Amino acid sequence: MASFANIYRNRRNIVNRYFTEIEKAQECREKEYRAALTIQAAWRKYKILKRRKLRNESAIKIQKTWRMFHEGMLFRCLKTEKETEDRNKLFNEKARKIQKVWRGYWERKHVFDFNKQKAFMNDVQKKNEEMELMLDNYYTQTSEAATFAEEEQKSVQDVKKALHTHYLVSTSAIPSIYQPPAFTKDAAAMPAIEQFIRTVNKAKIVVPSIGKR
After folding, report:
1. For residue 40, is it within any domain?
2. Full residue range of the structural domain in which residue 8 is found
3. Which of 71, 88, 137, 204 is most exposed by smallest CB count within 10 Å?
4. What is the pTM of this model?
């Protein structure tokens, strides 16, 4: 009973203290609430930033891995293409060499036989030499015949000219009579005629009778 009486006497102080504690608790609650909000905001920000950083790092790793894989695939494709191109080029070159050797062998064996060609060329050379000899002989014969005929014709013409000009053969012949070609019928034959007249032996000249010309 004494305790209850003591509480009853101090009821106002208890009530005031209660409300005071309530006010303090209210103030602390607001501070704790704001502190909790700040902590939650900071924690969420930290988590978001960490998650974003992790995602960025993961994305960078994924992109790096993918680009590495893609570049590796591209490199392997280019390498395979280059090897295929080099192999085809090598095969084509070897095939051309084989074809060249085979065509050369075939041409020498079936088309351009060296032994037959050499024999043919020797035969042609012999034929050409024989033909050249025949042509030389023919040319010599025809040239001699033509020269002989020309000399005979010239001799006959000289004799005719001498017979037609026998009256000029005299001790009283004037030398200037041989000079003007205008008085001769054949001016081109005058030098030969003059030489013939000068060298002829006058004692052996038989003057023929002059008939119709």
Report:
1. yes
2. 2-76
3. 204
4. 0.34
